[in-house]
Amino acid sequence: MNPDAVLSWGGPRLRDLPWRRTRDPWAILVAEVMLQQTQVSRIIPRWEAFVRRHPTPADFASRPLGDALREWQGLGYPRRARNLHDAATAMVERHDGAVPDELDALLALPGIGPYTARAVLAFAFERDVAVVDTNIARVLARDSGRRLTPGQVQAAADGLVPAGHGWAWNQVLMDLGATVCRSQPRCAACPQRGACAWNVAGRPDPDPALGSAGVSGRQAPYVGSVRQARGRILRRLGDGAVPVDALDPAIVEGLVADRLVVVVSGDGHGPAVAQLP
Asked: Model confidence over 30-59: pLDDT tens digits?
């Protein structure tokens, strides 16, 4: 892959996303957590409202977790809200309320994995580190012409970051995967079509992106799933406590284990109720 050619192609084509207009580490961290397994179009208004309401980690950490879960409704995967709340609390306790700017410190925060930590370093602090999301992993696997293990895909990404251009490079590569090198690729529009090993070989089966580390597969149907049942209960609890015996006990048990719900005993004065923390 030729980074200069890709940067020249992608720079003028970068999508205008609101979190790309800031270098505020907290705002960028919030965006990255929201974007996990959720479409960009759904995130934009929710992100804008969130960072206005909670401009710092301390602002968010000061709110009860139940408020965070209510605010997160409609975005899916509520454990992300819990993790972000835990991370904000840890930043207040360990880093004077600031988002740390070192990889190890970011990884030590609750719920912050390698992708999110590197994204904060690249997009907030403009460090020359390689970010690997599902779009970038797909690009790198096809470019190499083979399936990649986690170590191989990260090594390939690390070796491509142009010095002094970490922010732009990761954004461009991410957009290349999101708009051109998609699940159904548009190879004719790709600046790497003449150098991509898979395309040069005639795009043989199997697609090397399938099964490569970091490339997400098709999600299981939402309708009728445990995820849907959990979401219904959380939405119901958003309006107030509900007697436990009116809910699916197995679902409630899982939500309690995930610290998304608490059960309060009636102490002989009524039934036990489930409520948000």
From this structure: 999 999 888 898 999 999 999 999 999 999
Alpha carbon 156 to chain centroid, angstroms: 21
Going by C-alpha positions, the residue among 192, 212, 187, 196 that lies closest to residue 137 is: 212
pLDDT surpassing 80 at residue 116: yes
Location of structure tokens 């003449």: 194
* Nearest-angstrom CA–CA distance, 267 and 250: 22
Show which residues are catalytic: 32
Split into its structural domains, the chain has a count of: 3
Answer whether residue 244 is part of any domain.
yes
Residue 208 lies in a domain: no
Check whether residue 63 and residue 150 sit in a common domain. no
- CATH code at position 29: 1.10.340.30
| Residue type at 42 in one-letter notation | R
- What Å distances lie between residue 3 and 71, 130, 157, 162, CA to CA? 40, 13, 11, 7
